Amino acid sequence: MTTSVPLRFERLANKGDHRDLRLQLGAYSHTCDSYYLVIDESPAAPQPLGASLARLLEQWRGQVDELKGTPGTAYLPYDFSDQCTAWLRVTSADGRNAEIHAGWSRVEAWGIEPSNYRATAPEITDFDPIAGAQIECTLDDLSQCIAGNVEAHATSRV
Question: Which of 55, 68, 122, 133 is the most buried (most CB within 10 A)?
Fold first, then answer.
């Protein structure tokens, strides 16, 4: 049985590349910029922005699916800034259930290609969780939730 996972990564109504994205994780909400998604020059970087967000979320889903059946941790970026980045840390002790925490790293976004972050981002070793920004769910439910977010962005024409 699938349960609703309180995770959403969405574009806000205002256009532009600053303060135009919002991550919702349970009661926690964070507004961030699409700037680094827009300027991503990687060959894997799709356009328009909706497709770039879908590509980012597809990478998230791939990492979550890799945790199924195996204990481990994955880091999923959602805020790319000059001086730091924000990530979701997905930890599974049993390869079935997950704890998801939002937090910060001092890894700077200017060296990361959002469309290919797994290859271009350094290892996150300084993750600093945000108090109260966490949820628990199954990995299956999390993967399905991310897939729903991918679908919403993939159909966007802007």
Answer: 55
* pLDDT higher than 70, residue 15: no
Give residue 1's pLDDT band: very low, low, confident or very high (50, 70, 90). very low
Q: What is residue 99's three-state secondary structure?
A: strand
What count of other Cβ atoms lies within 10 Å of the Cβ of residue 18?
11
Distances, alpha carbon 28 to alpha carbons 22, 68, 86, in Å: 10, 25, 13
Supply 105's token pair: 């790293």
42-89 pLDDT per residue, tens: 888 888 888 999 999 999 999 999 999 999 999 999 999 999 999 999
Q: pTM above the 0.85 mark?
A: yes
> What phi and psi values does residue 27 have, to the nearest 5 degrees?
-80, -10
| pLDDT confidence of residue 28 | 98
CB atoms within 10 A of CB 10: 13
Contacts of 18 (CB under 8 A, 6+ apart): 33, 35
Q: By the 8 A CB rule, do 77 and 111 touch?
A: no
Q: Which two tokens stand for residue 89?
A: 């840390």
Q: In angstroms, what CA-CA distances link 44 with 26, 77, 123? A: 31, 17, 21
